[in-house]
Amino acid sequence: MSINSSVSYRPCVGIMLLNHEGHVFTGRRIDTSTEAWQMPQGGIDEGEGYKKAALRELLEETGITSDKVEIISQSLGWLYYDLPEHLGGKFWGGKYKGQKQIWFLMRFLGVDGDVDINHFEPEFNEWKWIKPKVLPDLIAPFKKKIYEEVLHIFKDELRS
User: Fold this and answer.
1) The domain 9-157 is classified under which CATH number: 3.90.79.10, 3.30.160.20, 3.40.630.10, 3.40.50.720?
2) Got the DSSP string for 115-133?
3) Contact at 8 Å (CB) between 105 and 18?
4) What is the pLDDT of residues 29-73, one digit of tens each?
5) What is the pLDDT of residue 5?
6) Domain-by-domain residue ranges, the chain?
7) Residues 36, 29 contacting (CB under 8 angstroms)
8) HSE (CB half, 13 Å, CA atoms) of 142?
9) Residue of 17, 43, 26 lying closest to 135 (CA atoms)
10) Would you give the DSSP letter of residue 53?
């Protein structure tokens, strides 16, 4: 696990959502011209617990309600990533150099029709289920290491 000072990292949660086949939900980011796919993630509101933040972010980004998921596991500590220098000042008013995240592994209990990426303000313009092992190859290069860490943390619960 990466060990960094948390002084300038934005506190967030991340969600690895598995369907009944053991595939992972990924969405293609709407705010980039590249093929940037990612799992749902987002900031923790002040006074909000990790689990509550994860379920809120899941709803906001996928339209999936909390009764359609089961929490399987959670990372024990923070995982960190830095934004590349060319993005550093573009996000969060330049206040953070990256994010620190608590990750949740969840099982999706619903059907694909329960997914609505336009439920709130869309962050994704497309979504799909993928095999866990291909995750690091689909995401932005600066997030590759953290995705490899998430895969390692949840490896005992994943199928290949």
Assistant:
1) 3.90.79.10
2) --TTSSS-SEEEEEEE-GG
3) yes
4) 887 767 789 999 999 999 999 999 999 999 999 999 999 999 999
5) 46
6) 9-157
7) yes
8) 12
9) 26
10) H
CA 121, 43, 31, 29 dihedral sign is negative
CB proximity list for 123: less than 8 A, separation 6 or greater: 27, 29, 30, 31, 60, 61, 117
Going by the DSSP 8-state scheme, the letter that residue 86 receives in this structure is T
CA distance readout (Å), 55 to 68, 84, 98, 132: 10, 28, 22, 21
Q: In this structure, which amino acid lies at residue 121? A: E
CB count within 10 Å of CB 123 equals 19
Average pLDDT over residues 134-155: 92
Both structure tokens of 78: 């923070």
Amino acid, res. 46? E
Average pLDDT, whole number, for the chain? 88
Which three-class secondary structure state does DSSP give residue 59?
helix
pLDDT of residue 36: 83
- Does the predicted TM-score (pTM) go above 0.85? yes
